[in-house]
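#help-structures

NK: newbie question. if I give both the sequence and a SMILES, will the prediction place the ligand too? trying with zinc ion
OV: yes, paste both and it writes out the complex. here, I ran yours:
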Amino acid sequence: MKRRTFIKTTSISGMACALPPFITLPFTTDYTTDELMGKADVDLFGDGINLRKEAYESFLEMKKAAYADGYDIKIVSSFRDFYRQEAIWERKYIQYTEDDGMEPLEAIDKIIEYSTIPGTSRHHWGTDIDIIDGYPKSSGDVLVAEKFEAGGPYEGLKLWLDKNSEKFGFYLVYNNDPRRRGFKYEPWHYSYAPISIPMLAAYRRLNVLRLLEKEEFLGTEYFTTGFIKTYVEDNILDINPELL
Ligand SMILES: [Zn+2]
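OV: that's the protein plus ligand as structure tokens.
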């Protein structure tokens, strides 16, 4: 612990020499590789909320404010560990390759329209949530973009979030910018920026290809350097620029 503190202090002061004094760097060394990949036990707060402390507190404030305006923010999904993501990935992989007869690479492309490769999900961080409005009745899948658009059951909440979520630190990640690559538009997925920005900065320093090469879940044998490089550029980094 002492040693780590020493290294951190040294590197930060080292950088301070080269950078203008008004630029402050986030303490990204506080996040371990396991933590960034969803393999560590982190302290999460709130029954059914499961966010890091500061994100949890701000979420409650946002929920309260929305409630006063007639919306019941309900979390559909928040923290998900590596192993849970691995189960989701493998279920889809088997479905697409065996039931639907797709080639492995085609199946992987299909999975990554909406689901992440285990170890690369923002849901591993305890900062990101998928939310809907608990009030309107709605049938079938709830995380469908049309349901957040004009005439859909969550239109009201979406308009409220457009106006208010950033005041509480929550930003849309996969916005509807037509030039954006990677994951499709997800009007339900919000991220608590004050923590997820430094976490993404730390994540960018990982060698994702090398880390994924060590994994053995279905489909990993088809991951090439080019595929992972594009995946990182498009699916991890081509997001709402305010979260970079
Ligand atoms: Zn999500």
